[in-house]
Design a protein that fits this description.
Length: about 220
């Protein structure tokens, strides 16, 4: 498995290059990353970017500014991200947590209302440089289509597949996840572009599609 994961990483890196993920636009990079990790729940990154830019436009990409903003107004500013009322509440809850003085770790983050495993790991990896590999819907889709895992594999089991087989390196974790996101949103979509896929020769799904087209 170690060799397979390394091969996939090398192919994706050759195809897409260095990602430098997580993308931010403000000076408050850590705080913006935390907000972005919440906004990206159940939506595309394009919708998150619109919300982030809207917050920045009105100078609300700062913790002190968002603390003063009421939940209803915040919801309208992040409307493009979807589920905006819930996400406004989640942002308020995470700000309360950041002000609580509690240690920033996975257990404590998971105790915050609205923070699940993917969001917690995204915050820890990208905002605090902690070695937590992030699993998202793109990861499950790509690696199940390739025949490496079952499509109903749970979060922790898939995370262990990566952390147990690739080097425990924060920058590698960031790059690998970012490459997966890039490939998932552009090529390995719900309706995949298998003929454009750099992984098609080692992908069960892509091989099957190719064989069907030859019949």
């Amino acid at each position: 498995m170690k060799e397979k994961l390394e091969e996939i990483y090398q192919i994706l890196e050759e195809e897409y290059g260095f990602q430098r993920w997580w993308p931010t636009i403000s000076n408050s990079k850590r705080f913006e990353t935390i907000i972005g990790a919440i906004l990206t729940q159940n939506t595309s990154w394009n919708n998150v970017e619109k919300a982030i830019k809207n917050l920045d436009k009105f100078n609300f990409l700062r913790k002190d500014a968002l603390k003063q903003l009421n939940e209803e107004d915040l919801a309208q500013l992040i409307r493009s991200s979807g589920y905006f009322n819930q996400k406004a509440k989640k942002i308020k809850k995470v700000i309360e947590f950041l002000d609580s003085g509690k240690e920033i770790n996975r257990e404590n983050l998971l105790g915050v209302w609205g923070i699940g495993k993917e969001t917690a790991d995204s915050i820890l990896l990208y905002a605090y440089d902690k070695p937590e590999f992030v699993i998202d819907s793109y990861t499950k889709r790509i690696f199940s289509r390739m025949g490496i895992v079952k499509d109903n594999i749970d979060y922790d089991e898939l995370k262990e597949l990566f952390t147990g087989n690739i080097e425990n390196n924060i920058e590698l974790y960031k790059e690998y996840h970012a490459l997966i996101v890039n490939h998932g949103k552009d090529i390995c979509r719900k309706n995949p572009k298998c003929h454009e896929c750099c992984l098609r020769k080692i992908c069960e799904y892509g091989v099957n599609i190719h064989q069907m087209n030859l019949i």
